[in-house]
Records
---
Amino acid sequence: MHIRPFAPADHARVRDIFINWNRHITQPGMEDLFESYIRLALNEEIDHIPEYYSRPGFGFWVAEVDGTVAGMVGLERLENGEVEVRRMYVAAEFRRQGIGRTLLAYAEDRARDMGYTRIVLSTSALQPQAKALYEVSGYDLEREEVSTTQTKRTVGSGLTRYYFEKAL
């Protein structure tokens, strides 16, 4: 596996990984809600990765296995001077191979390189594997929150989100 900066040629694959994962975790009766969330995230972020993630304190990388993009991770500078792990996904056919753990460690290293001393991230109750990964990777649960508003970060609709932090 090789982790490298996102390139425009990665766009279609990154987009597919994002869409497929979100459709995979969609609960029965929530299809329209998730499709709305997917469209919002594509329009505001995923379809604009070069512009969105090229700002100071940001970054976006892909994990490549035998020439195929297997996963991705981004870092986004927050207004309070912290950095947030964003869009960490692994394609279905590459899951359970340690790619997520490697991407997370890589993002932490890049955050340190950028001078950050604290990193944050969040996940939903629909992603117990991600929650477990963050816990075993030394992240502390900062808070739980019921998300009622849909944004490019949350589906909304009363789903529980877990917010984690870690000192770097």
---
Amino acid sequence: MEVNKPKRIVLKLSGESLKGDLEFGLDSEVLRTIATEIKKISKMNTQVSIVAGGGNFWRGIEFEKRGMDRSTADYAGMLATIMNALALQDELEKNKIEVRTQSALNLPSVAEAYIRRRAIRHLEKGRLVLFAGGTGNPFMSTDTAAALRAVEINADILIMAKNGVDGMYDSDPKKNKSAKKISEITHHEALSKRLAALDSTALTLCMENSLPIVIFDLFKPDNLLKVISGEKVGSKIYTPIKS
């Protein structure tokens, strides 16, 4: 499958990728690297939005296992994504990138409320938009939030930067050294094989809306630039166009 140069993208960053080598929290060098890679595509007329996870601070499912109410745990996780969005906003602005942060949770002192038409208008004006607060609903992952926002704003592609993974594999490469990388696969095949690169809700949403996905290593220099340029990087998930 050839990936054309996308005009509008959603970049999903896992929360774990933001902590670098730290046990938890935010690694300043990681933030600088992300800003540097995004700066490289700033002159390509690509409209960029970002969804960041919160796993570097909080994982709701882990606290549920400890006895916390799942909805309460998930709302705390949404706050973690807002912390990450504000840190990314600060670093991007230091690199002269105009940013607007929109939150699915109502926090007017730190972010705009998420409004689809306003988000699209920001993108059309050349501003980068950070989508924070997940979907605003518990029981939904930030992968699903990224897929939802991508569909809502009519993005051309969902680009997913996973923590320490350069694509989709037939098993967990961190646990199985013999895991094989999959360069291309359809949404349907990925679902039927229960591949765990992203959750099934997000994958189904992308499949139903024929939204292609690229899973790649953001921290390899120029990888994001290559994806935006239409080069083959990482793994691609797509639905074939019917003739």
---
Amino acid sequence: MSSNQSKVPVTFWIVGVLGVLWNLAGIANFIFQVFFTDVMIAQMSEPQKELILNSPLWMEIVFGVATILGLLGSIGLIMRKRWATPALLVSLIAVVIQMGYSSFATDALEIMGQSPVFPAVIVLFSVILWWYAKRSEARGFLN
């Protein structure tokens, strides 16, 4: 084992743990959204109800892929596994599709009262995680 593989910087662990925490929050949001109850939907405004009830199934699938592979990729990063990089890349692609559709093909941001900054932050964090995994792999930190 080379010295690169045996000793990783503290930032490696910080990025990995932040990635896991970030993606756990994404998983919680995904579960919450997929399992909206009738009571929860009844408490929403009409535009919110329409947005949620008319969301295409493929968007839920893309959301699931983004969050599940983001979490697995972050765990793989902590475990120092090379497969973390492609998992985080697929997650990033799914995030871009999800945020792009929500931001540009629907009125979701306006209806949900969100700033366009939030989707940009989600995409940026996904880019950083993938880039960091790719960089870590190139430096020999992943095997």
